[in-house]
Amino acid sequence: MRKLNSNQQALAKAIGVHVAIAVVLLISVSFSPDPFEPVSNSDAPVIQATFIDAQAIADKKRAEQAAAEKAQAEADARQRKAREAAAQERKRKEEQAARQAAEKKAADKKRREEAERQKQQELKRIAAQKEKERKQREAQEKADAERKAKEAREKAEQERILQEKAEAERAAQAQRRRKQVMSEVDRYRALITSKVQSFLYADDSFKGKECRLNIRLATSGYVTQVKRLGGDDALCRAAEAAVRRPDKLPMSDDPAVYEQIRDINITVRL
Predict the structure, then answer these.
(1) How far apart, in whole angstroms, are the C-alpha atoms of residue 13 and residue 52?
(2) Which of 47, 144, 174, 221 could form a disulfide with 248 if both were Cys (CB 3.0 to 4.6 A apart)?
(3) What share of the chain is helix, strand, coil (3-state, %, to 5)?
């Protein structure tokens, strides 16, 4: 049941009071004693007044009822307008909420799209940066490899040149050493030959003749073996005896020279 507001409650209370008064008056008129008893002229105005009061009450009642109905109609109109306004307000709020929701949804979508776009841009930037770094790294690695290869080639070339120089120097030293050794060998061959010929008994029959001998020597110059290689027999016998006469023959302290003269061939001539 709808609850009455304060204006409606006051109007209903006023109507109730007037209705109660009207009922009381009607009852007093209807139940007055001896209604058909003749009355004196002095009472006529009272009856007329009572009738007039009832009519007035009825008119007032109708007026009040009309006012109440008008007030009710106005109240109903106000309530209807209030409901319509409330409905419009709800509709407006719903539309506003729907619009705000749509705007929020659109804004969220736009934010997501913007976030996705920024994310893709960031991924592209990172990928481009990584690609750039990769190319730079590869270029640096290639440059380092080429530099190292060049340095290796230069180092190898330097080492080759140094080695060639060292080999050339060693060869030169070896050549000089060989020449020195051979010079010493020739010198000791001449010394040994001279020593043998100094111990050879001279004989006029040996003139114009020669004998080739092979002599093997110890490091001390001691003769370990003598062998005839060819020549005059008599001279060769005399030369073999001459080789064995001294305690030792000339010998170099240089191992390289010794290697060349420890097994030496000489030619004895007179």
Answers:
(1) 25
(2) 221
(3) 75, 10, 15
